[in-house]
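Forwarding these from the shared drive since the link keeps breaking.
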Amino acid sequence: MKNEKEMDDLDKTIAEWKHRNPELANQFDEGYENFKIGVLFKASRKQAGMTQEEVAQKLGTKKSAISRIENHAEDIRLSTLHKYAKALGKKVNLEIV
């Protein structure tokens, strides 16, 4: 686990890189948002005490599809997010800022 100093250095490095490469910065931000979606769903699934297989069964799909959502959430349909959340007994709450 990184300490605060290392995280500060990482944040500074990322900020400098994004400043030098605005086009790539947008791609970085989008990729990070996709990553967060997968992390949130995986954490919610584990908090619910469910396996990927159990979620897949509730959604009528395969475990590999659940793994894909948790690890590669790019271009995921909003309806899929809602179904996944519902399988966990949760709701998706979107916010535009």
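-- next protein --
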Amino acid sequence: MTDNNPAADPSPAPLKKSDNPALKALVANGVSVWLDDLSRLRIQSGNLQELVDTKGVVGVTTNPSIFQAAVAGSDAYDSDLRELSTQGKPLEEIVLDLTTEDVRNACDILKPVYDKTGGQDGRVSIEVEPALAHDTHKTVEQARQLWQAVDRPNLFIKIPATVEGLPAISQVLAEGISVNVTLIFSLDRYRGVMNAFLTGLEQAREAGHDLGQMRSVASFFVSRVDTEVDKRLDEVGGDNAAEAQRLKGKAGVANARLAYQAYEEVFATPRWKNLEDDGAHRQRPLWASTGVKNPAYPDTLYVTELVAPDTVNTMPEKTLDAVMDHGTITGDTVTGHYAESAEVLDSLERLGISYTEVTDVLEREGVEKFEKAWGELLEGLKDELAQVTR
């Protein structure tokens, strides 16, 4: 892959930083703030640049649902659709052209952050088609295609953490492609993801890739865990009803905190140290799905309660604004809470709520949700094409 951008100034001006106390505290405690949204309108209006300059945003994540909402809610794509329609391209290629252009332009906006942070931040993610989530070979093929199409060093290819996705993660990393592993819900699967990451780096080293140029994050989903668990807790009655209500809103944070414990364990092993000695960077945990879905809970819950070094929190703008307005960052809220977090999950099991069943459901529904959004994106573009070519 080549970088088509001009070479970075050897002495770049310092990045603008938000003066907001909550955002400054997050950064001071090792948390990178990424935006969980992207649209052409954000790019063209200068809004994304403004978020980087004034709200401390140092990365962007996308998914099929985000692209579907972006295209459906704006006429910013009409001129491109009109032009692409004259080229006789199939709908799937048109989607690829539109989405990779947005991501490429976002990468260019975030490039100064990438340069300033040595590649740790300034990243933009694009996801392989959700229909490929259970096809290892096709996932690898499309990861290569997206990497080449966007053609920017600060790109992340998002690959779902399905069973079939794990070997794809290793293969893509082995080819020197940076990866954002997405749709992680369970601790066992997260350990599998970290193993796939280490395997990929080992293979990349054997292939002669510079490990220092590669980065990865592991997107561990939070709020969806509470949504599913709370639904089951509300069905618990009798003598256990009070205990069930006490546990509402606790599973998502507890699960994520235990994921961080697993992260600390894996990245203290001799296997990792061997890679680190050759220049490799840790795969940072990324807290995803951090917009609070239950209005009864604090709207900053999945930010203030998941502060830990070397993490990323990717937020919808509504959540980012809430954190800036009234978020209270008190320091590390993760590493001292492993025992109580384990007790939350144990208590759920005692109430008959199966952790494995919950996380299996969430993974399946996560893939289905993105497949549905992708289908709606294709249908929406089909209708838009009909409109602009009249």
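The radius of gyration is 21 Å. The mean pLDDT is 93.

- D.
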